[in-house]
Structure formats: C-alpha cells, structure tokens
Amino acid sequence: MKVVFITGGAGFIGSALIRLLIAESDWRIVNIDKLTYAGNLASLAAAGRDPRHVFRHHDICDRQAMDALFAEYRPDGIIHLAAESHVDRSIHGPGDFIQTNVVGTYTLLEATRTYWSSLDTAARTAFRFHHVSTDEVFGSLGPSGLFDESTAYDPRSPYSASKAASDHLVRAWQHTYGLPTLVTNCSNNYGPYQFPEKLIPLMIGNAVAGKPLPIYGKGDNVRDWLYVDDHARALKLVFEKGRPGETYCIGGRNEMTNLQVIDTLCDLLDRRHPGSEGRRHAGLKTFVADRPGHDQRYAINADKIRRELGWMPLETFASGIEKTVSWYLENTEWTSHVQSGAYRQWIDRNYTQR
Fold first, then answer.
1. Is residue 143 part of a domain?
2. Structural domain of residue 44, as residue ranges?
C-alpha cells in the first residue's frame, strides 16, 4: 500500500483532503500535525479512525522527528499543508508565521531530500513533494485581471510573505537538487470544519448568537471563493497526475465582495435560523476600521488545471454556501467545543496514536 505524508492534516483543508483520500483512494495516510490552536482531530470525523490513517503529533520544524518518520513509514510522497494561515494573526505576531511557514518548510524539504536521495531510481522518479500555497502571494489585483501561474509575486502581509518564501524554497529544491515538486496556489476556501476566526464561520456564529457582524472598511474587498471539497479534489488530482516542477492555480471563479458574502449569509440565516422577534440578521452588520494593508481583490484563472488535469469546481457559491450554513447549523457541538476550547482535549479523550 502506498504511503503519503500529509502535514497539517488536522487543519481545515488538510482534514478535508484526508476525508476524501480515505473515501476515494487506497493511500495509507500519515497525518503529521503540531496541533496548534487551529488543529482539530475532531474535524476528521470517522475518517480519522480508519486503519489507513495514522496520526503523528510532531512539529515540522523538528528535523529529528521528521527523519524518524521517513525512516519508519518510507512514504511515496508528501502533501505539505502545515502552515500558520490567518492574516490578522500574522499582523499581530509574525514570528510564528516565519518559523512554521519558512523554517518548517525548509526543514521538511531537507528531511525529504535526504530520504529521497536514498531511494532507488524508480522510487525517486515516482516520488512527489506537493506544496500547498495561496493566491495571496501574488499581492492585490485592480478591478480587472486574474492571477495565473505566470503572475509575479508581490506579497503584502507577513502571512503572504512567509508563504511566498516557502514557495520559492520548494522551487529552488526542485531546480537545485531535482526533487520532484508541485506547487498549488488556491483562492479563499470555505466549508464545513473551518476555524471560526475566518470570515464565513465567524459571521455564521455571530449571527446565530445575535452578535455584531464586523465588516472591515467598506466591505468592498473582493475574494474568489472555493468550496473546500472542490479544493481537496484538486489537490488529490495534482498530487497523483500533475507534472513535477509545475504550478497549478486553483480557484472557484466565485468573486464576491465581503459585503456580498455577508448579505448572502444574512439572507440564508433569515430563512434557516430566524432572529428573535423576527429581526433580520442584516441589522447586525457593523463596519469597523480596516485591516492594515488589506488587499483589495484576489481572483484566479484556473484554466491550466482544467486544461491539463480536467478539474473544475462542482460547487457554485450559491450551492456551497447553502451546504456550509446547513453544516454549521447542524453541528453546533463541534462549534461549541471550538469556542469553549474543549476541542483541545479531544485527542486525550478519543484518539490513540498508532
């Protein structure tokens, strides 16, 4: 049975990918996660208890631990998602982002290179190191145009700068050492199991609780929204079928202003979870001071991955946001455990490492 390392597999996108691989592949998965605040093994649901899933609680900055994992499991490839990912947190505390996203990626690359160099020719040729990145490395777009694989890098926040650095490291290890790498840059993800600091789950949670819905600036910043299960399908496809040395941009082609997203959520919640005394959720909208250096617009041209690998998103924003709202309304226990911090003890109560 082939083995894949997935770093950050207890996170939002990583857990979605693991659920997909357990359901639709025969990969054996070694899930490597430090379990920082956003890591939540409960997000893996039943897939996390499948015999093909092994969880190992390690920091990718720990070279000794990484070397030991390579020696024990001898993987056929890696999908690297472990990262600090929240822009607001990077503004207030950039050090963790440099450590995990830059130093961690370097450490993982070097451990991978040492292991990969020891393989026979066929195994070295078949091996893949798939680095998962973001469209934020490209900076900010004006009213028109799209990011694609040839767009120059222009990161504007500590988070995006740290991800840009990690992208460059991955490509350098491919060009210098011949390591078979792949890079994907995705647009904003949303869907079930997303940590509630992010826009969509934050707004759902606040609206249900009758709390203010804080909107940066005028709410006119534009993002391209990608349903997380569509992203997981793209990652699986790139990892299994993508050409080494290539970059693939993954986007939902769902451009929305933040205000449009919040208005859509308010309309859905008015129907699905009416406010007390019939009050409309839009009345909770509150405009706050803008985030420093807030990029105006992101949007991705995903023609390459469609043309070369046949991927297209299955969800429109309308269908994906309906599923997302339904999930959060039906899984209040997961949300309450995150909000209370109880999820931090989940591994001790429910999971035995194997």
1. yes
2. 3-192+226-254+298-316
The one-letter amino acid at 254: N
Per residue in 142-185, pLDDT tens? 999 999 999 999 999 999 999 999 999 999 999 999 999 999 99
3-state secondary structure 45-62: HHHHHCCCEEEEECCCCC
Straight-line distance from the first to the last Cα atom of the chain, in angstroms, rounded to the nearest whole number: 17
Place of tokens 């989940």: 346
Contact in structure between 48 and 18 (CB atoms under 8 Å): yes
CB neighbourhood size of 271 (10 A): 9
Residues 6+ apart with CB under 8 A from 79: 4, 5, 6, 7, 17, 130, 132, 235, 239
Residue 152 exposed, middle or buried by CB count within 10 Å (0-12, 13-18, 19+): exposed
The total of structural domains in the chain comes to: 1
- Which residue type is seen at 73? Y
Task: Tell me what the mean pLDDT of segment 69-83 comes to.
Answer: 98
Asked whether residue 177 is domain-assigned, the answer is yes
- Per DSSP bridges, beta strands 255-257 and 28-33 are unpaired
Looking up residue 13, the CATH number of its domain turns out to be 3.40.50.720
CA–CA dist 326, 272 (Å, integer) = 8
Q: How far apart are CA 47 and CA 57, in angstroms?
A: 17
Asked whether residue 353 is domain-assigned, the answer is: no
Q: Answer yes or no: is 326 within a domain.
A: no
Maximum distance among all alpha carbons in the chain? 69
Question: 288 has which bridge partners?
Answer: 216
Q: Where are the beta strands (DSSP E) in 174-219?
A: 181-186, 188-190, 213-216
Helix 199-209, helix 317-330: angle, nearest 10: 50
Reported as a single tens digit per residue, the pLDDT across 272-289 is 998 776 789 999 999 999
- Three-state secondary structure call for residue 326: helix
Q: Catalytic residue positions?
A: 135-136, 159
* CA dihedral angle for residue 313, residue 319, residue 322, residue 325, rounded to 10 degrees: 0
DSSP 286-313: EEEPPPTT---B--B--HHHHHHH----
Instruction: List, in order, residues 6 or more apart from 336 with CB less than 8 Å away.
Output: 342
